[in-house]
From TrEMBL:
Family: Belongs to the glycosyltransferase 2 family.
Reaction(s) the record says it catalyses: N-(9Z-octadecenoyl)-sphing-4-enine + UDP-alpha-D-xylose = beta-D-xylosyl-(1<->1')-N-(9Z-octadecenoyl)-sphing-4-enine + UDP + H(+); UDP-alpha-D-xylose + an N-acylsphing-4-enine = a beta-D-xylosyl-(1<->1')-N-acylsphing-4-enine + UDP + H(+)
CDD domains: Glucosylceramide_synthase
InterPro entries named in the record: Ceramide_glucosylTrfase, Nucleotide-diphossugar_trans
Pfam family membership, one: Glyco_transf_21
GO process annotations (BP): glucosylceramide biosynthetic process
Signal sequence, start to end: 1-22
Chain segments annotated as transmembrane: 335-356, 363-383, 403-423
UniProt-recorded name of the protein: ceramide glucosyltransferase
Involved pathway(s): Sphingolipid metabolism; Lipid metabolism; sphingolipid metabolism
Source organism: Amphibalanus amphitrite (Striped barnacle)
Length: 460
């Protein structure tokens, strides 16, 4: 009988998934899978499916308590909080386009550059075509032989009306190579509002206007939630699924609760409070300078705000391995800055949390463990699809089957990447190797020196 219930549950979930995948509606949210309607196919009816699943979980008929447990565990409060937070901030709203009584303040944009890829030219050019009346761009290039220099010079010549300066070589003020690269541009900034924007960011025409609009009197830092541009290839699908589901859920939930979650890939900040804290050089000892930027503003009584336009990343990641290395590096930073991440972060993942929930339901209510786990994964999957749809705001550039594959892959390797981050705390970033102490302070690891005998052989 137990095997029969498991088989029936698999059939019900696969049938529901078949109907969801087979929907010809390309809208972000598949309403046919979320509404309690009664289509011609009785098995595909969500209302009847819910009743059948409840019966499979607990044939004894005590569905009232079971429904509460299922709703609490499977609906995931973090999903609800993130979706509500996204609704509160109203992603992609256009309030900043309304008439403004006071003039737009000047903004200094700091662009750290080192190397490039096939998408860099489009990313950089998007900063020259923004619809904003007063801003300057400070290109900070780390190496005088960097191949990006001709590209920057070409763009500067193409848009002579944009106030632009180029700084080469950086200035050593700490361990963080990004801070060292940005320091000359920061010292030359002539406006009180500063945007730190990574090379992978592509701006829309009104993005800067949206960020400045959210910089109210009580706000010290406006950050964009990381997301990705639409690009071809499975790696881009995997990136969009990660940033639009797991990352967006934690990011917006933390923002709703007032937790520091700011990322530095695209952030607008007040220069005055930074100068009071010692300027950029005061953050040169940290690799995760963005977290400590935000913490500085919070300590001075300012608030953090999320822009309504997500940060559009457009970078040639290359392959899945390269993207995974990026996630591992971020996990190492989180563990060093907030040590209790080691205990809390794993239980925010679908597979582990579902196992714990199924075990609890088994012990408390004698619920079938396997069926409960499958139901948990199904609800999590649907809520992730809803979260991604809210962030994307338009039709997704891939089909539902690709989403299923990318989602399953992301959920499967997430615990493995986290364990790898704990096992090897050394961070390899750009051209350096670093170790982190508790609290986020970074120490650069010197390159290994070859033995004396080998050095002699090289000279000979």
């Amino acid at each position: 009988m137990c095997y029969l219930r498991h088989s029936l549950c698999f059939v019900v979930i696969l049938q529901w998934l078949r109907v969801w995948l087979g929907s010809r509606d390309r809208n972000p949210v598949c309403l046919s899978a979320l509404t309690v309607s009664c289509p011609a196919d009785p098995v595909a009816s969500p209302g009847r499916t819910c009743l059948l699943i409840l019966h499979l979980l607990n044939p004894s008929g005590h569905h009232d308590i079971l429904l509460v447990v299922v709703s609490y565990t499977c609906s995931q409060p973090s999903h609800a909080a993130a979706i509500c937070s996204s609704t509160r901030y109203k992603f992609h709203r256009k309030d900043h386009l309304s008439p403004r009584e006071e003039p737009w303040p000047g903004v200094t944009i700091l662009k750290p550059l080192i190397g490039g890829d096939s998408l860099l030219a489009t990313n950089l050019e998007s900063f020259f075509t923004m619809n904003y009346p007063l801003y300057e761009i400070m290109f900070c290039i780390q190496n005088a032989n960097d191949p990006v220099i001709p590209l920057v010079n070409e763009l500067v010549a193409k848009y002579p009306t944009i106030d632009t300066k180029v700084f080469i070589g950086g200035k050593k003020v700490g361990t963080n190579p990004k801070i060292n690269n940005l320091q000359p541009g920061y010292e030359a900034a002539k406006y009180d509002l500063i945007v730190v924007s990574d090379s992978c960011i592509r701006m829309k025409e009104d993005t800067l206007m949206d960020m400045v609009h959210n910089m109210t009197a009580r706000v010290g830092l406006v950050h964009q939630m990381p997301f990705t541009c639409d690009r071809p290839g499975f790696v881009s699908v995997l990136e969009k699924v990660y940033f639009g589901t797991a990352h967006a859920r934690i990011y917006m939930c933390a923002s709703l609760l007032g937790i520091n979650c700011a990322t530095g890939m695209s952030a607008l900040m007040r220069k005055g409070p930074l100068d009071e804290a010692g300027g950029l050089r005061a953050f040169g000892c940290y690799l995760a300078e963005d977290y400590f930027f935000a913490q500085t503003f919070l300590n001075r009584g300012y608030q953090l705000a999320v822009a309504s336009t997500p940060a559009c990343q457009s970078a040639d990641t290359g392959d899945v391995i390269g993207f995974q290395k990026r996630l591992i590096r971020w996990a190492k930073l989180r563990i060093a800055m907030v040590p209790f991440t080691i205990l809390m972060e794993p239980v925010t993942e679908c597979l582990l949390l579902g196992a714990l929930g199924a075990l609890a339901a088994r012990c408390l209510l004698q619920v079938d463990l396997i069926v409960f786990y499958l139901l948990h994964v199904l609800f999590w999957f649907l809520l992730d699809w809803l979260m991604l749809s809210v962030v994307q705001n338009t039709s997704l550039p891939f089909n539902k089957f690709e989403f299923v594959v990318a989602w399953l892959l992301r959920e499967a390797y997430a615990p493995i990447l986290f364990l790898r981050a704990i096992w090897d705390p050394v961070i390899r970033w750009r051209h350096g190797v670093f170790k982190l102490r508790w609290g986020g302070v970074a120490e650069e690891v010197p390159a290994p020196v070859p033995p004396a005998d080998d050095a002699v052989k090289v000279k000979l």
